[in-house]
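S2.1 Query sequence (RING-type E3 ubiquitin transferase)
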Amino acid sequence: MPDQDDYNFPFAAQPDIIRANQKDAYFQGMLHEQFSSLVQNILGARWLHHNSRELKLFSEILYLSLTTLAGIRTLGEEYTDMLYADSKNRSRPTLKRRAAFVFSSTLLPYILVKSWPKIRERLKKTWIARSLTPREQSQPSTRLGQVRNTALRTLNAALSLENLYAVHLAVFYFSGAYYSLSKRLWNLRYIFTRKLQPHEQRAGYEVLGALLMVQLAARGYLYLSSSSESSSISTSAPSLTSDEKQLPTPTTTTSLDDPTSLAFIPPQSRTCTLCLSPMTDPTSTPCGHLFCWECIQDWVREKPECPLCRQGVRMSEAVPLRG
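Output structure tokens follow.
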């Protein structure tokens, strides 16, 4: 990184910022694969499967600690001749600010993803308590109750992390600043480390931003239309209880470590390909492959597909086997 405290170079454009982030994501993925192979050889495939998200977090923190936190550019930033600086005076960020950026771009999203469902439910309950009286809340069959249910579904979609990130990405396409929320939080923008010639000027991605906003608007319109059409049906039909909405968790434990348990399964098929151990509560996917109940449940939460044939799988379609 240059020694001067202030930079007089132009701000980077959207294409170079995206290219740098894609390059960094590639190298972070390589680092994660190396750690995964090492951990699998030491602790086994089951531990790796249950802690894959934490291992990915560790890889991201290590990559940014060796580059950004240390005050040097990442490989993606080197590739595109960029570095980040204060968006107001283009000065070099301090160590404390770089550490805050690393924390907010790695640990904060991890914590937010785990706690966001509870935060969203609390926001919805707060909205109900402030907007409706107790008498109105106890009348879901009235017209007011239908409006409340529609508003709740709309609020639930609006508070989705996917939709919030899509809005932020559209703003980036328009402005060309703050590709990540953590950089917006700490006012850090990418700048070029060399002067651009007139023929090197980058084009913006405003068209992509407009298309993304149109997509979000169309998705919201279709969501509201389907919600309004189903509101009358939902009020007349009996509502499902929380137990009925839960996944069909096996009530008893079945282990294929016992040869007499589900003896119709051949010996070569009694080992789970995810944890490499005898299956516990063997579960069949729609494509016919068998896995442990917990293993396939954790897998589908991350990737809704079969680990072997890549056919789409939802947990509501998984069938636990019983003798």
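Residues 95-131 form the longest helix (37 residues). The CA atoms of residues 283 and 320 lie 4 Å apart.
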